[in-house]
């Protein structure tokens, strides 16, 4: 992720001055957000552009906000590495916070895959096997020639008393050739221009519907989008995400520019007897919903005679409050109808306590079930999918490290074999 620093804005121009990129971890927004003990804004790294003549001042600001600088690199070197490509974000308040804070972003090669895809994607993804999915549709529509779809519906997903705004948005794609499968993403290009007067860049969002769409007629695609809203770390001003606000405010009948689809890393295995472990936070539920519909929805199964899921699926879902359980009725209906095949575990941070008496996050649930998960993961039929906040990965790895160590196995080495086998799928932001 890359965030344009407030200090750069103060410099007004980059021309004639050297600019550096600080990679920072642990940065909080303000004392108010820090007191919430809600780790969304503390997850992963942010990248701040800093003019040479403001470097010391920015170091002091970062320290004051609790951040730690882990690397400093010249911007020119990173631009050469990234080719100054267009940029994107994904369906998460954490991802859009880092990108939309100033309406512009430039990806930095800080995680796998080292190269960006052609959409300037900023998701962290484990690298898929080369040509493993050669027949999967990709980049049917590109930023310079997007497909113009229409909003069909825009429905609230957060219940009364919940935190924030999250919408399920369905688009009509019948007028074009946009095809996709479960686990892929599409790009959305919001209207208007950024602060520099240039057209807005696309943002990527994981698709929340199966290849047949919510209406099972191959004519729609759906997204799960959270509106970004946070306090600016310097001014305390409330900042709203450009693309997320645009999408959450769409009215039925309004046009939207769509690109893609992209992504081959998060695809379901064709094996109907597979074990599927899903770990999601917030809007990271989007691809998981698509998987569960494909696996368990009756009408979906009727039109997919070639795929009749008979394996087991386990979703561990992290959310802040019960009203924030996205697609709650759908999830619990599947659980009730297929109790032998689908297991649903919530981690509700502001309502449940972990073993130490603190808030219950997804990594705490993984730690609770680490031994059982480890035994499942060792099964060659098991695929694990992680989608949501990058901050949860460390806790998940820690829990599985402890479980594997009981059998004398080094988790980090074993995880590499899973990735190589195409059984460990990660999309975090």
Characterise this structure:
The protein has 429 residues and is an alpha+beta fold. The protein folds into 3 domains: 6-84, Allophycocyanin linker chain (domain) (Dna Ligase, domain 1, 2-Layer Sandwich); 147-262, Translation factors (Elongation Factor Tu (Ef-tu), domain 3, Beta Barrel), CATH 2.40.30; 275-428, Rossmann fold (3-Layer(aba) Sandwich), CATH 3.40.50. The protein has helices spanning 6-11, 31-35, 55-64, 75-82, 93-100, 242-248, 285-296, 298-302, 328-337, 362-368, 370-378, 392-405, 411-420, and strands at 19-25, 45-51, 68-74, 124-125, 147-156, 166-172, 185-189, 203-206, 220-226, 229-231, 238-240, 255-262, 275-281, 312-319, 342-348, 382-388, 424-428. The strands form 4 sheets. It has a 6-stranded mixed β-sheet, sandwiched between helices. The chain has a 6-stranded antiparallel β-sheet with strand order 8-7-12-5-6-9. Residues 1-17, 29-43 and 79-131 have low confidence and may be disordered. Helix content is 26%, strand content 24%. It is built from 13 helices and 17 strands.
